[in-house]
């Protein structure tokens, strides 16, 4: 399991490859303990579905020990536009994944954080990335 995991905003994959995990001036969310599978599970939860091939993240080769994924635009849009009324139902579904092991409240908090970041990415016409180090 990775020691650190972040979701962050970058203009493109080249900028994302140069991301430094503790870079304080870049909008990011520490989401240690999760993998690409759990992020895919969140995307599926947003669609009230099971994880399918379409929920896979886009792998980016970093030529280092870090594992980097771009979060697809469909995921970013769905999350950025998640209505407040749907937070509870999405959090319940996401928290129920065996690999997550979070309470509904913690899942709701993380979804809110990631949603805020997704909205910033859209406002600045950038992308969301997920890195495991």
How would you characterize this protein structure?
The structure is a single chain. The chain has 133 residues and is an alpha+beta fold. The chain has helices at residues 13-17, 36-46, 73-80, 87-95, 104-123, and strands at 5-10, 28-30, 58-60, 67-71, 127-132. The protein has five helices and five strands. The chain has a five-stranded antiparallel beta sheet with strand order 2-1-5-4-3. The protein is globular and about 35 Å long. It starts with a strand and ends with a strand.
Outline of this structure?
The protein has helices spanning 13-17, 36-46, 73-80, 87-95, 104-123; strands at residues 5-10, 28-30, 58-60, 67-71, 127-132.
Overall domain count? 1
Please report which band the strand proportion falls in: under 5%, 5-15%, 15-25%, 25-35%, 35-45% or over 45%.
15-25%
Distance between termini?
9 Å
CATH C-level class is Alpha Beta
Mean of the pLDDT scores? 89
Low-confidence stretches: none
Radius of gyration: 14 Å
Biggest sheet layout: 5 strands, antiparallel
Q: For the largest sheet, list the strands in their spatial order.
A: 2-1-5-4-3
The CATH architecture would be: 3-Layer(aba) Sandwich
CATH topology: Hypothetical protein yfbM fold
Overall SS class: alpha+beta
Separate helix tally: 5
